[in-house]
Mutator-like transposase domain-containing protein (Microctonus aethiopoides), 251 residues
Amino acid sequence: MGWTTRGTRKNNDSLTGYSVLIGYFSKKVMAYDIRNRKCRICNGGHKPEDHDCSKNFQGTAKSMEPASAVIITCENRNLKDANMEIGVLIADNDSGTIAALHERCNHEVVKHSGMNHISKGVSNQLYELKQEKSYKELNNDSIKWIQRCFTYCVTKHDRNVDEIKKGLVNIPESAFNNHAKCDPSWCGYYKHNENYTHDVIGAGFKNENLHNDLKKMFQNLANNVLIRRANGSARGESPSSIVLLPSTQQD
């Protein structure tokens, strides 16, 4: 969802929010919704029935998102008229939205995270690790490089879970200049061998504690990769796709 006023996780007081439902394959707009918490005419002393009042929402700006998702997904008149349902929703990682859909929809809606949000989650984990352990080798450039490696691995091996898992667990090894299991089609080591250095991290990381933490993190990510398929119905069946489940902390 978009808001007219930029906010943060802890502070979002926008008066207007807007949502758009776009078809994954057609790339066409299927529905849109605008939520307003304020009407200028009403604030001027007029009654709502005296004008075309734009106020249609009461609550916080953040709560607009699940409410709007229900309107364009579960209560979408165009979809109902066409005897169709939304089986898979690709959106951000807001748990309130999918909870609202599960409560209000009379059919199953599978929530998938878009690659941008999954990749951002990996970046957040790396920054949290940097803050917690004060690893100097984890700076903005190196974190962005690891994030790019993650995104490339998942997109390159689309729908191939085994290859994604192999690639993910090898990212820490590549970062520490261990290239025995790297894919020769993209790893620069196989072109330059002993003279190879990373464009971003030079000869690679050295801190073994960081090595162990990265291995644990990416093994955890690999353990949570699977293929999910939305339940088919007479109205159609959604295609399978790669899903990364929320990571669980491992000891």
About this structure: The chain is about 40% helix and 15% strand. The CA atoms of residues 167 and 186 lie 12 Å apart. The chain has two domains: 2-113, 116-227.
